[in-house]
């Protein structure tokens, strides 16, 4: 079970690390269209899982506000991210791309039942060293 969690975390880091590179390589595709294309591609594995295991469709039953918040949040975040990387100078774009994960690590300590631990600080400092 730990290996699976580690592999899932590794693939998340891998995808994140390519996001800025692929955004820059996308040329002049408008950010809204780029978001739509990415979500269309990203939904294919989920659709395949549902086709192969239809019983999972029951897991999708959520209140409308959960769907609206989730979709609007993810789509809006990526639209703004693509827009920022497209319009920002190189240094500022690098800061956008590489500093927000540090805020996520430190911000995770604010979740209920969590507190800022030494490994949050060490992880944030290690990431900060990688931005220079």
Main traits of this protein?
about 130 residues
How large a portion of the residues is in β-strands, by DSSP E? under 5%
Shape: globular
How would you characterize the largest beta sheet? none
Instruction: Provide the helix percentage.
Output: over 70%
How many H/I helical runs?
5
Please mark out the parts with pLDDT under 50 across 5 or more consecutive residues, or reply none: none
Describe the protein.
By secondary structure, the chain is mainly alpha-helical. It folds into 2 domains: 16-87, no CATH class; 89-132. 76% of the residues lie in helices and 0% in strands. It contains 5 helices and no strands. The radius of gyration is 17 Å and the shape is globular. The model has no long low-confidence stretch (mean pLDDT 85).
Give a topology summary.
Layout: H1 2-25, H2 31-52, H3 64-87, H4 90-107, H5 118-129
């Amino acid at each position: 079970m730990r290996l699976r969690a580690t592999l899932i975390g590794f693939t998340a880091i891998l995808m994140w690390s390519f996001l800025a590179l692929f955004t820059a390589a996308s040329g002049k595709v408008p950010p809204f269209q780029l978001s739509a294309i990415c979500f269309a591609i990203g939904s294919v594995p989920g659709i395949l899982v549902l086709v192969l295991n239809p019983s999972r469709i029951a897991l999708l039953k959520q209140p409308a506000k959960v769907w609206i918040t989730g979709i609007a949040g993810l789509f809006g975040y990526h639209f703004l991210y693509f827009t920022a990387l497209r319009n920002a100078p190189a240094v500022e774009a690098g800061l956008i791309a590489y500093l927000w994960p540090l805020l996520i690590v430190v911000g995770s300590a604010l979740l209920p039942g969590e507190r800022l631990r030494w490994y949050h600080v060490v992880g944030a400092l290690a990431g900060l060293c990688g931005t220079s």
